[in-house]
DNA sequence: ACCCTTCCGGACAGGACCTGTCCGGAAGGC
DNA sequence: GCCTTCCGGACAGGTCCTGTCCGGAAGGGT
């Protein structure tokens, strides 16, 4: 085994278990214990501190240093990391998803083929079940898109709009943002001379051209804010607006699916909340979390939505009072599969 | 720069950008291009294939090979990976969380101190907001526990039970499982001569003794199943049972918070669902997703719960019909903060 | 078809550095 | 006090690493 290979192996061993004795390491690496000592020294010189304790039960262990040593992951761990990144929770922290995507791109680029399908399989099962099927983001697609963002490379891909209309795009990719397990690409489309957002799960065959572009300024503070605005402006299948006798901050804290721009303060003690969703069930869920605040509420929306909510409320009351309820054809629309929040593209 | 250090730097460069020309690499590494070529060859011999393309715009790029090369992450990426692992989605895949925890232990062991607080800060904001505050799992604690599982080391820690009673434990840690962003440790407690589950967010000061133990057989197929059973048996603050005129598989697919053992088939076309939760709001949410199935339902539960659901249903119906509703003191209990599913310890 | 740019890899010489062997020393645990 | 472990200097032999040459092959653009 060559020396650099041995160093990596050593790092790998030190990462895979808490503590190793010099003799064990020497045997595993096929060298003298003196050489192990030298290798450990080399690691230390590289800036990866290795603690050692003498005496019975002593040994070497990797400590945390100034910067992160190369991570040597086994197959399972690599899959776990990929899945973790893929389902990266978005909300709040500026740019965290961006970084998740970048890390995923890094990993995906070198992920052995045999692990690819495992990542896909696991993320299949593991993604929030509130998402409809068919909205699963393909890690490979996401990785390509993320790499294009990172390298400021023009990106071409096929896209299927929310209404199902296919198109071919050639855009300047800028940022990736995730909301509730859905990934969105914020990009500038030179052909349409405007900014667009794309749902990554509706992107197919992304191919990085090798052409670089110089990033333009996004017409917003940051990508998350921009996306939030775009989504808030997007038409939903079903929509309703509630006015709540509680401060915006309280509502934001308790409502599921926290989208800043859904909640609009009306003075210090009241606010207005947009409940839009692509299924009536989602609208009802959102409303329920407002009801749970137990404050005065008013509601405004199309008859279709109000009717459904009314029927749902009646069924709930009936169920609780009498112990049973029959199916109600008026609520049928809510059983169709959800497709998540819409997009502006 | 020594040769192994240079190899690592080369790997890092190749991972950080899509493509590099030989000349660029030579300059970055401070060696001749001939040496770069030799280094690239060395990488290939280590089993990390590097694609190269000649001609204008050509260069070197890392390809995927038989196994994963050492990952060289920058600060941000390391934080993203840690957070991704910490919020690892559980559901379904056998042992995936276990692996996530192992990978996290690996990472946490070598994570520079300055990044620790960033991981904590990000996961603070980023964890499912449906979780009450104070149920955030400390990555450092989780990492220690995971390492103890991995190394089969006896673990001591302080624990605060669900009722708030403190105790000191000394257990044989076996498995980690996560449900909805909460981590559970399944362990054998020799002092009590029985298996126990612990919520990791209620564990403090975990310290691995260096004493090894030989794992005993868990009284279940796997840890997830065991936990599921334990949680299903655990008393909830509020509880109710619904009988649904739909196959169990359909319900499992559509209900939020899929816990296998919550849903019990009654023949092929009906099933019984346990709606237990620690807030009335959670119970109502669960019930709502059953209502959305739009099938016949019956409900059974304590008057306290039924009353609340009745009131909620009435308020919902009223709101939808008249456009407004007043606060209702009968539903007050639902505004208390949730604490997530209970545990059996 | 031509040229330019890029990757490729053999040969060679000088010197750096790596390894095993031997050793005396220090520090923790029983 | 004994054992086990880590520690690091000295030394000799030989590996192998690096820079410098070079001719060759393969894309891409004009």
Automatic annotation (TrEMBL), chains A, B:
Region (Disordered), start-end ranges: 321-345
Keyword annotations: DNA-binding, Transcription, Transcription regulation
Residue ranges of domain HTH deoR-type in the record: 3-58
Keyword Protease: no
Stored InterPro entries: CBASS_pafABC_assoc_protein (IPR051534), DeoR_HTH (IPR001034), HTH_11 (IPR013196), Tscrpt_reg_HTH_DeoR_CS (IPR018356), WH-like_DNA-bd_sf (IPR036388), WH_DNA-bd_sf (IPR036390), WYL_dom (IPR026881)
Domain of life: Bacteria
A Pfam family this chain is assigned to: HTH_11
Protein's recorded name: HTH domain-containing protein
Lineage of origin: Bacteria, Bacillati, Actinomycetota, Actinomycetes, Pseudonocardiales
